[in-house]
């Protein structure tokens, strides 16, 4: 999540320093993050705050966690679900990001013994906003694809009933499917489960166009 009204594709673009920003090592970033009351993401030396989210985002994020957890439990699947507090590390880019939800296969794999930087996500979920939609759908997707284990991407709109999935069939072949009917069930091929669109948008009231 980044400030509403921003049109930049990449969160680094919202920074407009009068002088070159200070760069931090990954270790310095993690030490600062451990002490911080707020979350920050890390872009190869640059630390960017994650602003406070709005109510609909929080509701949808909670809904998708519950729906995924119920689906995995009902199907007796040996996967692990993480919330948006789990940081994912992209070693080839030296990025540390916070997806809105993610699922891993078998046991978590971390960058080091601190068990903070997860590097083996299978499914990554992002709840879109006006300010992040372009970045999440484009550049951020390309960044996530640098992780070999990453096989499925779920993009959830906040302001309308629309969920898009992208599934990696082959190393460079992704299949996309869009769901817009509240009666639809979202098929997550990488984990062999489906969740109801109505469960994702539970307690969400879409604003009518003016």
Short descriptors:
single chain; about 210 residues; alpha+beta; tt1808, chain A; six-stranded mixed sheet; five-stranded mixed sheet; about 20% helix; globular; disordered N terminus
Question: How would you describe this protein?
Answer:
The chain is an alpha+beta fold and 210 residues long. The chain folds into 2 domains: 11-49, no CATH class; 55-200, tt1808, chain A. It has helices at residues 26-35, 55-74, 133-137, 139-144, 197-200, and strands at residues 40-43, 46-49, 79-82, 87-90, 95-97, 101-105, 117-118, 121-127, 152-156, 163-170, 173-179, 185-188, 193-196. The model is unreliable at 1-7 (pLDDT under 50).
């Amino acid at each position: 999540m980044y400030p509403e009204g921003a049109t930049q594709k990449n969160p680094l673009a919202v920074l407009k320093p009068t002088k070159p920003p200070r760069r931090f090592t990954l270790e310095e970033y993690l030490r600062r993050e451990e002490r911080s009351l707020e979350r920050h993401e890390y872009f190869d030396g640059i630390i960017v705050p994650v602003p406070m989210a709005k109510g609909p985002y929080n509701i949808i994020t909670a809904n998708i966690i519950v729906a995924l957890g119920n689906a995995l439990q009902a199907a007796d699947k040996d996967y692990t679900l993480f919330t948006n507090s789990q940081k994912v590390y992209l070693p080839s880019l030296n990025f540390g990001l916070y997806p809105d939800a993610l699922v891993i296969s078998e046991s978590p794999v971390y960058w080091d013994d601190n068990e903070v930087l997860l590097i083996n996500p299978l499914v990554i979920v992002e709840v879109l906003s006006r300010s992040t939609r372009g970045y999440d759908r484009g550049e951020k997707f390309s960044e996530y694809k640098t992780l070999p284990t990453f096989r499925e991407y779920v993009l959830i709109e906040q302001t309308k009933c629309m969920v898009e999935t992208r599934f990696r069939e082959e190393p460079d072949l992704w299949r996309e499917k869009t769901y817009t009917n509240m009666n639809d069930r979202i098929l997550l091929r990488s984990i062999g489960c489906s969740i109801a669109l109505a469960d994702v948008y539970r307690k969400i009231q879409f604003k009518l166009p003016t």
